[in-house]
Amino acid sequence: MSSKVGRQLKSRFAVPYACYKLISTRRSLIRQSGWIQSIRTSTPCSESGDPVPWMNYSMVELLEERLRKTHDVFEFGSGFSTCFFGQHCRQVVSVEYDRSWYDRVQELIPDNARVIFQPRDTDGDYCRAIAQCEQSFHVVVVDGQDRVNCIRQALGHLEPDGIVLLDDSDRADYQPGFAALADAGFKSLSIGGLKPGSPCRHQTTIFYRPDNCFGL
């Protein structure tokens, strides 16, 4: 094939060719991020297969950069993120409302992680599960049910330098959570991008105060 013909084909089929390059190029973003590997394994993971939260990859990179082994994490919602935080932090406690998923997660998590089972409800025991721990946390991840009430309950269980992560934060239903955190003196930083296995843009927001544990 002549170079001229090759250029003509690339021009005519520019979008399919670009998609091919995204998939086949070793240094492609969707390869290096783990997106391709996540499709192959049907799990949220890095390129090497390590578990990551089901958040956009830009947020995952920030977490990998800023998390410390001195951090204690609480999650509303559990899963591969629990494994990820267990690898990067001192301890992680999660609350889960789905019994079958709870049973599966128990087989995956590391020794420094534990999961509390709490059936789904609204403004009830689920959002108050964080109080069972009788401690404060550096990072609270809100990625489960009843998210606005989870945010409100989390405020009383944060370290002075603690932060809150709200996944899928572009949903209008979560705006009261933004307001509650703003009233408590938190600023926000929203980060968007591809999430493992999804072709769509997803957003996660970090809420933080001055002198926070992420240095924001």
TrEMBL record:
Q: Which Pfam family name is an example for this entry?
A: Methyltransf_24
Keywords (alphabetical) are: Methyltransferase, Transferase
GO BP annotations of the record are:
methylation
Q: Which InterPro entries match?
A: SAM-dependent_MTases_sf
Query: What is a GO molecular function of this protein?
Result: methyltransferase activity
Top-rank taxon: Bacteria
Descriptive protein name: Class I SAM-dependent methyltransferase
Q: Which organism's genome codes for this protein?
A: Roseiconus nitratireducens
